[in-house]
């Protein structure tokens, strides 16, 4: 229970004006209330971590998309450098423009 009391003190002194809407120093929370406060703090931290992970994954996805576009562009440029024959639109598709 001493761990919970230490965490309670940390929660109480979190704001500069030493007031917190969820914590009343004159009427300290019971064990269940303190547990709820600690769970709330944990969930807030996890939410921040998830947000950072989502931003990181989004950046990775964007970088991957750019790489795929660059790879496709390179492939088409290399193919075009070989000057392949062009289809002229005639009824026989085997006939190509020179």
Structural summary, described in words:
The protein is rod-shaped. Helix 1 (2-12) crosses helix 2. The protein has a two-stranded antiparallel ribbon. The relative contact order is 0.07. The mean pLDDT is 76. The protein has 2 helices and 2 strands, in the order H-H-E-E. It has 98 residues and is mainly alpha-helical. It has one domain.
Sequence-ordered SSE layout with sheet pairings:
Layout: H1 2-12, H2 31-81, E1 86-87, E2 96-97
Antiparallel strand pairs: 1-2
Instruction: Return the string of H and E elements.
Output: HHEE
**Helical percentage:** 55-70%
Q: Can you count the helices?
A: 2
Structural class: mainly alpha
As for the number of domains, it is 1
For the record, give the distance between the C-alpha atoms at the N and C termini, rounded to a whole number: 87 Å
Low-confidence residue ranges: none
Shape: rod-shaped
Structure summary, number of beta strands: 2
Rg, rounded, reads: 32 Å
Q: Beta-sheet strand percentage?
A: under 5%
Q: Overall pLDDT, averaged?
A: 76
The strand order across the widest sheet is 1-2
């Amino acid at each position: 229970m001493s761990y919970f009391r230490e965490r309670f003190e940390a929660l109480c002194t979190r704001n500069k004006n030493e007031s917190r809407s969820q914590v009343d120093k004159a009427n300290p929370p019971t064990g269940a209330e303190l547990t709820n406060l600690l769970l709330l703090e944990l969930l807030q931290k996890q939410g921040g971590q998830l947000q950072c992970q989502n931003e990181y994954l989004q950046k990775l996805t964007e970088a991957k998309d750019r790489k795929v576009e660059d790879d496709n562009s390179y492939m088409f440029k290399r193919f075009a450098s070989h000057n392949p024959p062009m289809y002229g639109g005639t009824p026989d598709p085997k006939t190509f423009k020179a």
